[in-house]
Amino acid sequence: MSTDPTPTRTRTVGRSDRWFWGTAGAVCGLYLAVLGGLIAADAGYIAGIGPFAEDKKDAANPLWSALADPDIRHSLHLTLVSCSITSILSLLTATPIGYLLSRRQFRGRALVDTLLDVPIVLPPLAIGVSLLILFQTLPASLRDAVVYQTPAVIVAQYVVASAFAIRSMRVTFDQIDPRLEQVAQTLGASRLQAFGWVVLPEARSGMLSATLLAWARSLGEFGPLLVFAGATRGKTEVLSTTVFLELSIGDLRSAVAVSLLMIVISVAALTLARVLGGRTRD
After folding, report:
1. Which pLDDT value is given to residue 60?
2. Which of 32, 80, 251, 270 is least enclosed, having the fewest CB within 10 Å?
3. What are the φ and ψ backbone dihedral angles of 47, each rounded to 5 degrees?
4. Please, what's the b/e burial string for 159-191 (b: 16 or more CB within 10 A of its CB; e: otherwise)?
């Protein structure tokens, strides 16, 4: 008389799966608790609740006080403008490069792919120093018009944000069936026409996602900005350097308020990018 081992094996696999997913969920929950704790601590400090109630007392709300500061308002304005310009430039760069890497095999492709990741893995301060050295080789008129001026903010953001946008666009193009372009070319369209009429409409959501990702990355840029653009109040100061400046003068309340504002903005941008990215995959 034989005994069917299938039920026993099924129970064993079921327990193994529960342990596996339970462990993964616990690790995820622990890390989310850390991130949530960071945000909750900032919000509690601003609101003056819990352990921060004594610190606040009758002081004005730090967030409104920070936004009433002309220097911080200028910083917010420059941040929004520079991040928007940077995200557009990043998309214009990422679209052809992402398409090239997705569709074309060529000699040196692996090297190109590696070099495109350098801004992602390179220490931020090193990027700022490298930009300074690069502009030392350019004509003095161009160097003086960019270095430690407002354009330097956009250049520093662009170098890093473009690398993230390129990765996003490559994934987008990888998910678009190349046969659609081949059919268009079979019907008489050129490569450029197939790209513009077939590929770009299909990649629309991915392009928006890449733009938002570049925007959010630009928002959090600090190291290259500090070295290459400086942190001059009313001139090259953006929100990330505002946090540094407020801490340097001992104004913790304003630093926390600006940090919380950046968190809210970045979470909104990243959430929208994830939603658009999910639509692209669907």
Report:
1. 63
2. 32
3. -80, -15
4. bbbbbbbbbbbbbbbeebeeeebeebeeeebee
CATH architecture of 62-281: Orthogonal Bundle (1.10)
At residue 50's C-alpha, the angle toward residues 45 and 55, to 5°, is 55
Contact 194, 185 (CB under 8 A): yes
Domain boundaries, the chain: 6-56, 62-281
What is the C-alpha to C-alpha distance for residues 86 and 80, in angstroms, rounded to an integer? 10
**In the numeric block, which tokens belong to residue 280?**
């692209």
217: exposed, middle or buried (Cβ count in 10 Å: 0-12, 13-18, 19+): buried
User: What tokens does 227 get?
Assistant: 């070295």
Range 131-135, long-range pairs (CB < 8 A, 24+ positions): 131/155, 131/156, 131/159, 131/224, 131/227, 131/228, 132/227, 132/228
Tens digit of pLDDT for each residue in 95-126? 999 999 998 888 988 999 999 999 998 898 99
* Structure tokens that stand for 64 in this block: 């409104």
Closest CA to 272 of 212, 210, 202, 200: 212
